[in-house]
Amino acid sequence: MKSKRNLYVLALGVFGITTTEFGVIGILPEIASAFHVPIDKAGWLLSVFALIVAVFGPFMIILFSSFRRKPLLVSSLFIFAAANVLSAYITNFYILLAVRMIPAFFHPVYWSISLSVAEKTSAPENKSKAVGIIFSGLTLATVLGVPLATLMSDLISWQAAFFLTAFINILALAGVQLFLPSIQNTSGSSTGLSFKTLNNIPLWTSLFLAFFTIMAMYSTYGYMADFLKNITLMNGRQISIMFFLFGTVGIAGNKMAGKYMSRFPFETTLIFLILLLGIHLLIFYYGVFFIPMIGIIAFWGLIHSGGFLISNINVTSSTSGSPEFINSIFTSCGNFAVTAGTLLGGFWISHYGIGSIVWPSIICITLAFCILLLKKKLTE
């Protein structure tokens, strides 16, 4: 029972750091307007954050491999809170971008430790469910963090959204400090042994599958607020409600993904990709219609929320040993994909318009589908 409580405490921290990373999605139009930059440039606040995580993730894990885990988690959350407070007072876009980069270095540290604790403290048959609890923090950020940040920006200002995100991180910090016991260092492997685990074809196949899956998810989702504003013609408050709807149904989607990935990993991944493809086609053909778009967003949130969990299970189950290092590699891969997705989405918008934003996602889903079939053939 205590083990489950510990996972929920760690998930609270994931909620805080993920709200910092993705909370800007709902306020990108306001930030673009405030700093007089185009929407694709405002998207750098998401893509550059993700790029820092992607590039430095494994190295940060190695750098802090000898540090005690609980103080490392608390320190990471403090840095996230402080960066959000600073962000609210900045008047220059490039300084804001630089400040956003600071907590990004500690994002993979928190994620990797949390995921490795879930995997190491759970029986094999419960691994997917334990990892699902950690990912519930990501879902909660989608349910509450992103829509609340969007609502705060609409009601007060975009600065208020950053203050809200800082408060969430402080709350998470308090939860980790008060309720989480001391965590045993689970890395226990040298740098050489960690990198040796990368000599694994199934691992690389799973990483490419995760990359194109997550890239597909964020090519469109990263500009959801702009799409709803300019194509569906929703106002700020309606957009925040849509983000809330998206995340709320995502709770069920995350649970379903965790339940079925432990028993039917290939079938679950295949169905996920097919449904994700269908959703993006629906967005393209019905995105201009207000009422149908509400239903599409609900279905979108249900499917989208399982993407990270499905990708994580595919990657971590393809190899053994060095759990924190492998999770840091997955975190890097996922954030490379977020970076690539938002940059591709921004490029597509600047050349073809926000109305056709789903096509980069459709291309990436098709590539992910091909890699999944290749992975299936390699493991037969």
Determine Rg (CA atoms, Å). Answer: 19 Å
User: What string, H for helix and E for strand, traces the elements in order?
Assistant: HHHHHHHHHHHHHHHHHH
> Would you state the CATH class?
Mainly Alpha
Largest sheet: none
Number of domains: 1
CATH architecture descriptor: Up-down Bundle
Helix content: over 70%
Average pLDDT rating: 83
**CATH fold naming:** Growth Hormone, Chain: A
* Low-pLDDT stretches: 188-193
The total count of strands amounts to: 0
Output the number of helix runs.
Answer: 18
Q: What is the rounded distance between the termini?
A: 38 Å
> Beta fraction of the residues?
under 5%
Structural class: mainly alpha
Instruction: Give the overall shape.
Output: globular
What do these coordinates show?
The chain is mainly α and 380 residues long. The protein has one domain: MFS general substrate transporter like domains (Growth Hormone, Chain: A, Up-down Bundle), CATH 1.20.1250. Helices cover 81% and strands 0% of the residues. The chain has helices at residues 2-22, 28-35, 39-42, 44-63, 69-87, 93-104, 107-120, 127-155, 158-179, 191-196, 201-221, 224-230, 236-261, 265-286, 290-304, 307-316, 323-352, 358-379. Helix 1 (2-22) packs parallel to helix 5, helix 4 packs antiparallel against helix 17 (323-352) and helix 11 (201-221) packs antiparallel against helix 18. The longest helix is centred in the last third of the chain and has 30 residues, at 323-352. The radius of gyration is 19 Å and the shape is globular. The protein starts with a helix and ends with a helix. The model is unreliable at 188-193 (pLDDT under 50).
